[in-house]
């Protein structure tokens, strides 16, 4: 492992709980609950918050009425409120909702692409080109996601070079950052090291983020590896919410609380208020308990 011996001084957490977390909950989540959660997260100091996605409610019913969530939040001046968009229609909805940023998503697995987005990887890239062009014209930053960087529930292990090429392609198209996702939470620290060794010659560390699910309890170890390679942007979900509805068993993003705890132990600054973060965590856990069928 040829990681950077100097850890970053500061790490930015991208809070994905209100979108990637809640989208995989079984019960419907009220609009007011989603608004309150986003507000509490911003008050806790989280400056990048995935607020929702403009996908068909037929496929992801928990993300219905995302426009009302964007309309109802109290926007903090130093926070960016992000919307996930699958296509141009979703992008235009995000623009109308005044999303500060948009995120697009593809995968390193052809089979997963077909099951998740009903198209090939190449077709998904073509679908993003007009979105990125329009976003540039409107000065809206675009973040890219790559799922299944280590393994796919259908294909098994994924070749790291495929991840590297795809990440480089997204950056060249105009994404300012690419988030590397271990969607089924199966990756080991050794695999993450191997993937980053392959990706970093194609995309520099300051344009990469990591997005780990904690299915096998290795997410924090994997984040520690990424930090040692100079990656300082970490996706996480309050309370360890969610997973991917198209990857059975991939329960739970790494908890934001666990990431903050790791950063504290490593003396890496994060600017998040621990007490307010815990209040947000307790709030959403209680709300989910109360709305459970």
UniProtKB/TrEMBL annotation:
SUPFAM superfamilies named among the record's database cross-references: Aldolase
Keyword rRNA-binding: no
Domain of life: Bacteria
CDD domains reported for this sequence: DRE_TIM_HMGL
GO MF entries: 3-hydroxy-3-isohexenylglutaryl-CoA lyase activity; hydroxymethylglutaryl-CoA lyase activity; metal ion binding
Domain Pyruvate carboxyltransferase: 11-278
InterPro entries in the cross-refs: Aldolase_TIM (IPR013785), HMGL (IPR043594), PYR_CT (IPR000891)
Record-linked PROSITE patterns: PYR_CT
Transmembrane spans: none
EC numbers for this chain: 4.1.3.26
Annotated coiled-coil segments of the chain: none
Tagged with keyword Metal-binding: yes
Top-tier EC class: lyase
Keywords: Lyase, Metal-binding
GO biological process, one term: L-leucine catabolic process
Similarity field: Belongs to the HMG-CoA lyase family.
Protein name: 3-hydroxy-3-isohexenylglutaryl-CoA/hydroxy-methylglutaryl-CoA lyase
Organism listed in the record: Zhongshania aliphaticivorans
């Amino acid at each position: 492992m040829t990681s950077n011996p100097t850890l970053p001084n500061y790490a930015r957490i991208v809070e994905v709980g209100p979108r990637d977390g809640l989208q995989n909950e079984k019960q419907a989540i009220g609009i007011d609950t989603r608004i309150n959660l986003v507000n509490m997260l911003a008050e806790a100091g989280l400056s990048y918050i995935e607020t929702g996605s403009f996908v068909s409610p037929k496929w992801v019913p928990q993300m219905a009425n995302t426009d009302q969530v964007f309309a109802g939040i109290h926007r903090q001046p130093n926070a960016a409120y992000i919307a996930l968009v699958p296509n141009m229609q979703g992008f235009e909805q995000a623009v109308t909702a005044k999303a500060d940023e948009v995120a697009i998503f593809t995968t390193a697995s052809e089979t997963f692409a077909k099951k998740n987005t009903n198209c090939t990887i190449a077709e998904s890239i073509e679908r993003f080109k007009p979105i990125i062009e329009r976003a540039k014209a409107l000065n809206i930053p675009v973040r890219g996601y790559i799922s299944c960087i280590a393994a796919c529930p259908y294909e098994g292990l994924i070749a790291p070079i495929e991840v590297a090429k795809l990440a480089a392609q997204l950056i060249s198209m105009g994404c300012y950052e690419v988030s590397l996702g271990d969607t089924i939470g199966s990756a080991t620290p050794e695999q993450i090291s191997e993937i980053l060794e392959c990706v970093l010659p194609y995309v520099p560390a300051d344009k990469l983020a990591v997005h780990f699910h904690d299915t096998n309890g290795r997410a924090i170890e994997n984040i520690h590896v990424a930090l040692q390679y100079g990656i300082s942007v970490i996706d996480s979900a309050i309370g360890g919410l969610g997973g991917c509805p198209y990857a059975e068993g991939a329960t739970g993003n790494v908890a934001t609380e666990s990431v903050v705890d790791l950063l504290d132990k490593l003396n890496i600054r994060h600017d998040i208020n621990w007490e307010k973060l815990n209040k947000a965590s307790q709030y959403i856990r209680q709300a989910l308990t109360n709305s459970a069928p």
